[in-house]
Design a protein that fits this description.
Rossmann fold, globular, 224 residues, alpha/beta
Length: 224
């Protein structure tokens, strides 16, 4: 075990959720709140990457506070109906990290109750700590607060941790805390995102087996 604490994003890192939940929910949100507006799934993912979905909603689509509440209600209606599948190999990898005596924590923009449901549905041990899309969203990534809390509670130092995420907020949070960042490239392939990660991530991973190698091989620290 190369990292005592594995910190995972959830959507499109651990579970394949955008195709079956988040993009269909997004289209429904547009249908209700911005009729006639359309974005492809690739565009949706790019806006998730930068500036992030919340700034995109507020700044580009101009959602009001009331509309953001409607957005949340619609999104939750999709989350309630659909449990996304774990990517092949992720359940086994998480169990392997736990069995080796390590921590598995989640920092996500999803709601903690759905993260717990997804882990339980897949028969995966519940994460040691979960920081999700809670009431105080000012503390969500890219704010470094979740990682600092993980360090405080587990006693892990930055060099004992690795953050795995597919999006820019996770990278920014990791770097603010001096934690190594591994980009997840198995959820989708978008050239602009891949190019950014090639320049900025410590490790660029294209498959779950590559993450397994990073976590458990003797070659810790080999970037890209």
């Amino acid at each position: 075990m190369n990292f005592k604490c594995l910190v995972l994003d959830h959507d499109d890192t651990t579970v394949s959720s955008t195709p079956c939940i988040h993009y269909p929910a997004f289209l429904k949100i547009l249908e209700v709140l911005r009729p006639g507006t359309y974005y492809t799934m690739e565009e949706f993912l790019q806006y998730n990457f930068s500036p992030g979905l919340w700034p995109f909603y507020k700044e580009q689509l101009g959602f009001t506070k009331e509309e953001l509440e409607q957005e949340s209600t619609i999104w939750r209606s999709f989350l309630d109906k659909i449990t996304p599948p774990f990517f092949p190999g992720m359940a086994e990898l998480i169990k392997k990290q736990k069995e080796a005596g390590g921590y598995v924590c989640v920092v996500s923009h999803s709601f903690p109750e759905y993260i717990r449901r997804d882990y339980k549905s897949a028969g995966v041990p519940e994460p040691d700590l979960i920081y999700g899309w809670d009431s105080d969203r000012s503390k969500c990534k890219p704010n470094p607060w979740p990682l600092r809390e993980i360090m405080r509670i587990t006693g892990c130092t930055p060099d004992e941790m690795v953050m795995v995420d597919d999006l820019k907020p996770g990278l920014e949070m990791a770097y603010a805390c001096g934690v190594k960042f591994a980009s997840c490239g198995w959820g989708y392939e978008i050239p602009q995102i891949h190019e950014y990660m090639e320049k900025h991530a410590d490790h660029v991973l294209k498959s779950v087996p590559e993450l397994d190698h990073l976590l458990f091989s003797e070659e810790k620290g080999c970037a890209h």
